[in-house]
Amino acid sequence: MRSILAAALLFALLPAPAAGQVPPALPPGENASLDPAQAPAGAYALDPRHASVIWRIRHQSLGLFVGRFDRMAGTLTFDPNAPENSRLDVQVEAASVSTNVYDDPAERRFDREIAASLGAADAPLIRFVAQRVTRTGPATGLIEGALTMNGRTHPATFEATFQGGRSVLIPRGGKYVLAFSARAIINRRDWDVGSSVFNAFTGDLVEIIVDAEFVQQ
User: Fold this and answer.
1) How far apart are CA 123 and CA 95, in angstroms?
2) Residue 134: how many CB atoms within 10 A of its CB?
3) If 79 and its partner were Cys, which of 69, 85, 87, 98 is the partner (CB 3.0–4.6 Å)?
4) Angle value at C-alpha 160, between 155 and 166, nearest 5 degrees
5) In-domain check, residue 30
6) Apex CA 143: angle with CA 205 and CA 115, to 5°?
7) HSE-up of 153 (CA within 13 Å, CB side)?
8) In a 3-state reduction of DSSP, which class is residue 102?
9) Largest CA distance in the chain
């Protein structure tokens, strides 16, 4: 209840946007450090309970259709003094695609069709391995790497933002946690993803949006 009241108070204190303006972005956490150099160096693991991989694709040249993946894992070797030397390896289960489209309350045929177009049976993991990190600002950068999907590997580049780091006592036992956001746009046809139905009703470009926390190991 206290957290709900605190959140309500925070939004009540935020200045209301003027007519026609987009509300401001969520403010950074007041207890988190936005300086990557303050984070401990070493190995981190993706926290799947505090991570999301969302994708958006144009539907019939109109609205953006949104889906996500529910199961993922990953490792990060972080160098706070030279983030460009950090290493990242993330895997997403292709069969865990979720669109919230049901034929009946228990049937997810549409999700299975998308998973099949992703090659989930023969290539169950979608994997991104960073090969180059370039800093573009104090807390931003470009992550270039190899994206493997449907048995094919091609380059992909993510725009990344460091969302903060801090030592978390509960439930992490005092371990340091890093948070990042990332975004990329890829052409699904490069990975031969799709079918005659999808090709007829959806666009080729897919936007991938990632938010994730990594826990110190």
Assistant:
1) 10
2) 13
3) 85
4) 135
5) no
6) 40
7) 8
8) coil
9) 52
| E-only strand ranges, the chain | 42-59, 64-69, 72-78, 87-93, 97-98, 125-137, 140-149, 152-168, 175-187, 202-216
CB 206 within 8 A of CB 66: no
Q: Where are the alpha helices (DSSP H) in 62-134?
A: 109-117
State the residue range of the domain holding 204: 42-216
Give the count of domains, the chain: 1
Residue 213 exposure: Cα atoms within 13 Å on the Cβ side:
16
Tell whether 52 is covered by a domain: yes
Q: What is the pLDDT of residues 110-131, one digit of tens each?
A: 899 999 999 999 999 999 999 9
Q: Which residue has the higher pLDDT, 199 or 82?
A: 82
Does a structural domain hold residue 13? no
Tokens 């009241």 -> residue: 5
* CATH of residue 106: 2.40.128.110
Q: DSSP class of residue 119?
A: T
DSSP β-bridge partners for residue 75: 45, 89
What letter represents residue 121's amino acid?
Answer: A
Q: pLDDT tens for residues 4-26? A: 444 444 444 445 555 567 666 67
Closest CA to 198 of 94, 123, 115, 96: 115
Write down the pLDDT at residue 11: 42
Please name the helix (run of DSSP H) or strand (run of DSSP E) that holds residue 13, with its range, or none.
Answer: helix 2-13
pTM of the model: 0.85
In a domain, 147, yes or no: yes
Instruction: Yes or no: say if 140 and 159 are a contact pair by the CB < 8 Å rule.
Output: yes
